[in-house]
Amino acid sequence: MPTLFQQYVEKDHELRITCVGEKIFACRIYSQEKESTAEDMRF
Fold it and tell me: Mean pLDDT over all residues of the chain?
């Protein structure tokens, strides 16, 4: 199984960037506010 190992880096927030045509939309997710999303916001 392919595996990727990397150094752990604590995060402050997560970014989501969406491009629609020539428009770019960005949002910041404050994932560190809850323990359940502190390490991985995606579920």
Answer: 86
Is residue 41 in a domain? yes
- Helix H or strand E encompassing 43: none
Q: How many CB atoms lie within 10 A of CB 41?
A: 16
Instruction: Provide the sign of the torsion angle of the four alpha carbons 31, 10, 36, 5, taken in this order.
Output: positive
Q: Give Dmax (Cα) for the chain.
A: 38
- Residue 15 phi, psi (nearest 5): -115, 145
Please give the tally of structural domains in the chain: 1
Residue 32 maps to a domain: yes
pTM: 0.54
